[in-house]
What does this fold into?
Amino acid sequence: SSIVAIVGRPNVGKSTFFNRLIQRREAIVDAVSGVTRDRHYGKSDWNGREFSLIDTGGYVKGSDDVFEAEIDKQVVLAIEEADAIIFMVNVEDGVTGMDEDVARLLRKVTKPVFLVVNKVDNGKREEDAVEFYNLGLGEYHTIASINGSGTGDLLDDLVKALPEEEEEEVEEDAIPRFAVVGRPNAGKSSFINALIGEERYIVTDIAGTTRDAIDTKYNRFGFEFNLVDTAGIRKKSKVKEDLEFYSVMRSVRAIEHADVCLLVVDATRTFDGQIQNIFWLAQRNRKGIVVLINKWDLVEKDHKSTNEYEKHIKKQLEPFTDVPIIFISALTKQRIFKAIETAVEVYNNRTKRIKTSELNETLLPIIDNYPPPAYKGKFVKIKYIMQLPTPQPQFAFFCNLPQYVREGYKRYLENKLRELYDFKGVPISVYMRKK
Ligand code: GDP
It folds into this structure.
């Protein structure tokens, strides 16, 4: 989907606006996973058009006394990466020097830019907003992100300006698309180089298919796959990858265009929130995931180190822990074949289709044995189960009172599905439907 970046000085109201737009959807996700994280990336939609939203401000540490240079960098990166830019200013502060700097950068841009004047909640402020014409960005929108007024008109114009969606091919025998993602210096390029070894394995080089991620088709180890390479492009880019949100933006695109994400983790560094965020991105986009613990050659080992390390990683990945973890070394090429083999397995798990008759035969007795607990005195009767014809596994459980089935029970069903059919590395969805 298209990427919309929100830029602007600290404290103009970017994150309030961001939260308002993603709230409806993300609230559900948080309720399911039971975790709330500090998020600067989310999905939103308007008039049936979905887009990804990035709050660039969220990636600046100590946002209050941020340096101008830092903001400029964000804007430059947003210009490079996003499909549309929302430039937010605050009517209370009037036009500031920093606003002018940002505007100067944005005036050269051919991508759609929306100047949004925030905190306009009365007629007087509507008049004050006129001052922002001076930024030379033309027409502006006024909003009050605290109560949402003005947001609808802004979103109408925004989605109209987004580029046409590329048709997502869902060919039957499509070749798996693997995205290599992770933090800077985790070893993504090294892994890709080790994997490919020699140029002759490249079948076709279809650069530009996904606009900025290089999509290359390989035939290696007896498998055919497309690699969505984020590291390679970044190395060619003028801009240095010193901002976390830059790698997040790269990851967003790569992940959205992949079937399976290979998350490369540096074994010599701590598994931190940034890695969790990338993992979460893949999970949120319902992509297959394989975790590659790289630089394993550098780790002092005794007989229990892999086990302990794996336990530690799984703890960080909760609640979605049914994920393969492979210990590799891009340097010594240790287990890089295993990594690809596992990615192919995850791909197969993700494209698996289970017949309705089989699902019902295996699951209905299990449900009979342990039915959904009664809720407010109501009994739920699950009648039949179906896998939906979607690109990723989704299961609909048809029942009399879908609203009375609680999360805990849905998780129980998900676990049963995982035990029975092996969905390792694949986020699956369980829905209750009215029948
Ligand atoms: P990227 O930013 O994720 O593409 O990371 P690079 O592939 O550029 O790797 C960052 C650094 O880690 C480089 O100096 C690599 O030589 C080193 N490196 C990558 N993989 C390994 C590995 O498996 N073992 C060791 N010892 N070093 C590695």
Summary: The mean pLDDT is 82. Residues 14-33 form the longest helix (20 residues). The first strand starts at residue 2 and ends at 7. Residues 46 and 155 are 7 Å apart (CA to CA).
